[in-house]
Amino acid sequence: MNGAQHILEAFHRHSISTVFGYPGGCIMPLYDALVDDVGVEHVLCRHEQACALAADGFARASGKLGVCIATSGPGATNLITGVANAHRDSIPMLVITGQVPSGLIGTDAFQETDVLGMTLGIVKHSYLVDDADTLPAIMEEAMELAQSGRPGPVWIDIPKDLLLADVADASFARHGRQQNGCPDLTEALAMLRAARKPLLYSGGGISLAHAETSFRRFAEKSALPAVVTLKGIGNPGKHNPWNLGMLGMHGSRAANKAVDECDLLLVIGARLDDRATGKLEGFAPKAKTIHIDADAAEINKLRPADLAIRGELNDILEALTGAMADRPLAIAEWQKQCRTWHTTGGFQAADNEEPLAPITGPAFIRQLSRIAPDDTVIACDVGQHQMWVAQHYEFDHPRHHLTSGGLGTMGFGLPAAIGAQFADRNSTVINVTGDGSFMMNAQELATIRRYNLPVKLIVMDNQCLGMVRQQQELFYSNRESQINLDDNPDFVAMARAFDIPALHIERTDQVRRGIETILAYNGPMMLHVAISRDENVWPIVKPGASNREMLDETRRPSPAHKEQTA
User: Fold this and answer.
1) Is position 111 annotated as part of the catalytic site?
2) Which one of 193, 219, 246, 502 is at 20 to 30 Å from 255 when CA atoms are compared?
């Protein structure tokens, strides 16, 4: 059995049945081995970046390991943005690339690049295989590393000659995850019970730890008012009465107000990133902090914690839930205050009742949320539409909301939707995108058509780079620079060129029928939604400002007070 066949054997051993890739010279032995292997479905994307982003979407939606494959040189370098995206959001991914034959490494051979050197900062670990007999052990270790602790991408670069070389049989001892037990929570419980205004703050670490059920039990039993990060959306479910929504730059006024007024911040599975906290000196100024995370590197990184707890989130949450059941928190006045803030400062989007009025982004997303099934997976791109989805779509589970949080990768949504659809062929998957982001990976319409994936595409078209335009309007004296996209192609005709049916809507009275039509169609379909070029995402915090300095349409800066900002 050669190296390539050992890779496929490892896939079978770990129940990996779907991979995303693009062939080429130095990875060709693996593709040759795939011809004789009916147990692994290879999805041919139309660009290597899309292979990585589809593997990312597969992993986010399923909670399993995503796998992408490419050849050396440009094949490997094209993967880099997608792998960086997975790294910033801690997504478990295995990346396999071919490399020039061992004897040619370092000679500037055809399609040779130093992939390990180029990717050191965007992977959890990486390997350049230099002995074929070590490949089976490397595969085992790589798959374990990618999924254990804080997940992330692991990259294996394999010279072509080692893919063809015979590999000695190897036996493996499967290592179960080490159980360290639940850390002592005595001090945490004392701080919670002493607080008069405690606030629960959760992020993407909840779903990464597969702790969604444990988290919801704790959230319900503790009845703590709660805020979520962009990647934490869906953690509390749709019906938790204490959820104030997303905090941060485009968070709700209620969520940011609660953070500003709380006296204890219980942070679970979140990293306190700049888009969530705003100016750190102004973030939760009255609060002590309990920071619970699986990754010690995140604790005290940006804000010193008054109490740091590292451990398995499921164990910790179950212990906290038991303690809350024995002795509930006495925070009725704080709960009442937070409910009032939520009523007056939650995300609001008035439905336009004028049938011939233009479509507004927030109202469209609210309508989509009401019509789509509860288990619908929404794969966003990056821009204004992404924030409207985060603000106005009601998610019942964090794995239903696929978004590029840490890297902000335009072009993420369409390949991620493809990956999510392969994770569950029977689920409803919708790519909500903007006209700018859609053009980044529009070639993947061919992948949807090839595999007849029932992915629905919603292109919210304002004929510009809307988020950039908004910041130029508000913070750069309305000096527009390189954001005009009014020469976009006809997206409806473009979809039909890929044999994908498409509809165009531009009025409020067309929204319901348009959404219902694409959801009812048995196959892929596009809905092209024309929206105003001048529509903004509200609220917004000026970059570098404190979250308490939120702007909305009634508080937008006047031209005389607009300043340039980094």
Assistant:
1) yes
2) 193
